[in-house]
Amino acid sequence: MRRSKLEMHVDILKVLVRHGPLKLTHIMYKANVNCSVLKQYLDFLVQQNLVEEQALHKKRNKIRVVYAITERGRTVLKHFREVNSALHITEEANKIPASLY
To answer: How far is CA 63 from the centre of its chain?
Structure first.
């Protein structure tokens, strides 16, 4: 079953919450998204201020870019979980035959 864009955005946010700041390839494997699509989604999440790029200075003057969830991203993820849980209750209520009410 294919994931919607929203589900993929949420999956990326969940990965960043669980694992902290990560490099692009680590997000790619943990969220199960191919690289070109992930770059597009990360660009969108950065533009929306849900994710931020951070530069890490390593040995030999190398700079590595990692992505971290912002406070706004955490808030959006929290609200998404609340809405999702409410919808599951609504979906279950819709499965109950009307004769039982």
So the answer is: 24
Q: On the CB side of 53, how many CA atoms lie within 13 Å of its CA?
A: 11
For tokens 């494997």, name the residue.
29
Instruction: Tell which CATH architecture fits domain 5-96.
Output: Orthogonal Bundle (1.10)
Strands (E), the chain: 51-57, 63-69
What's the pTM? 0.81
Kindly report, residue by residue over 6-59, the tens digit of the pLDDT: 889 999 999 999 999 999 999 999 999 999 999 999 999 999 999 999 998 877
Place of tokens 């035959």: 97
